[in-house]
## 1
Amino acid sequence: WTLAAAIITSLVVAIMFQSLAGLLAGLFVPLVTRMIVKSRVSKKRKAFREQLPDNLDVLAGALRAGHSLVGAMNVMLESADEPFKSEFRRVLQDEQLGVPLDDALMVMSRRMDNLDVEQVAIVTRLQREAGGNTAEVLDRVVDNIRGRMELQRLVTVLTAQGRIARYILTAIPIFLLGFFLLVNPVWLEPLWQTTVGNIAMVFWVVMLVGGWFAIKKIVEIEV
């Protein structure tokens, strides 16, 4: 919605000031900025997700060795890589400040957009309230995580063509608009100087943004 609002705002400003360059900037800047930010966040979350099963194996092993849950987490962090290490260190810091461990894990689950961490939070809550064999439960959680990761990889491969098509179909009309602006801007003057042109331009932007989100909804399958 932030992206759509930015594009619509740029469209209104472009019509008011009759600036096609402003429209192109308004289309490109939000798209590029969003892509850069989302790429960095996704990269960090993906690395965290891939590191989670192996680190939970270490956690389960430390529990079997007789460590407490917090102590086992400290053992796990000794061999963990970034970004997993810093994220779980924040959990332990919250726990030292008096935040229940399961609540701190739930916060991290939302921060990393990871439902698997939510399962770990539930396990820690059950361990705190009822006890039980936490290591065995963690083993089952790890098996579920690895199964879901394999399914996600399959879905990613099957939807790769659709994701590429989303970027291409969105870029083509913007590229053509920029091409006509460079070749002969006079061709585009009716877009600014007539009511029909303004309506057509608004319709074009709405269809462009709508198509982007429609394809996104189709190809991004949650597992």
Note: The mean pLDDT is 79.
## 2
Amino acid sequence: MSNTSDFKILKEDHTLGNLLAEHLKQAPHVLMAGYKIAHPNVPELMIRIQTDGSITPREALVGACKQLVAMYGQLGREFQKELALRQYADQGEQGGGNGGGANGGHY
């Protein structure tokens, strides 16, 4: 079992590469994580992960992906909640009745 592996991820770029590499660097069993894009016109990302041997690089990558999916899922739910509250508040302001006019008193 090797503690260093390279992974090719197709149809991805710096956005995912940087996100994964930086998240992996924070993992306690990951010694090194980095990525490269061979050419800007080739949509593939190469990521290299080295661990301390207590977990495999594949386990580190899968764990990081699961954590990121959970983290951004929570962010999406919080965003939707805040958006709904904002829309509800905006409806209250529009129906507030500040007097005549076609615009409800707002010009």
Note: The radius of gyration is 23 Å.
## 3
Amino acid sequence: MDMLMAGADTSTTVFIGVLLCLAKNPEKQQLLRKEVMRVLPQRDGKFAADALSRIPYLRGCIKEALRIYPLGTGNIRVTPKDLVLSGYQVPKNTWVSVVAASLLMDDRYYPRSQEYLPERWLRSTENDEGAEPLKPINPFIYMPFGDGHSNC
């Protein structure tokens, strides 16, 4: 039952986060609608397998919603050996946590972090506004499904 709920609950949470972000940002919703309407077939047409690769703004909308409304707050790991972490002695078998959720809303890592900007995830050729996207400063901070052997 846990596995069933894990899959259903996370999918629902992501979907709700995307819908909330789009509802609060009608101009982004309109850009997404325009892109989807351009790529999707007519009602009686067939959906092409490569259609998803032609709607990068949708990918950006989902990634940005996951940044603002992450599924988890961070990751916990156990240190495999004694180590020094940011000047602190950390003994072997110590539980350490990365609270990624706070970093996702930090302007030091995500410029204009309080804004919903799907464009930050687009390559410059996909960015209709022509401006360079506000890429994350550190790509290892964005881990909506964890990382390493505990990755979902």
Note: The domain at 2-138 is CATH 1.10.630.10 (Cytochrome p450).
